[in-house]
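Figure 2 data, in text form.
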Amino acid sequence: MGIEELKNRIKSAIIIIVDGQPFKIKDLLFSITDKNILNVIGWTNQAAFDTIDREIALTELGTVKSKFSKMVDISNELKEFIKSRKVEYYLNYDYGKGSIEICSEINSVTKFYNYK
């Protein structure tokens, strides 16, 4: 996906998530909670849930944050959109029929839910 296409996807995402629908861009899912909170959800690269430990979870949560930061850097619309919102980051494990929360970062506090 090129830069211009990514910018257009971000514009579309903002319109859709404000209406209450989640929107996926690349490997991140965006949704709005309480109109003032943007949820940014990414998924672990680990094939097996039981191989995820605290170190892996923190590294991959950092990757989620980094990918989102890069999107903010290239999109003035996204930069403006998050000015008045909190951003909460989540790392999940996709097991095919759903996902399991592994950890999150909310208000600069990391919380672990399910991991080895």
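Caption note: The chain has a mean pLDDT of 93.
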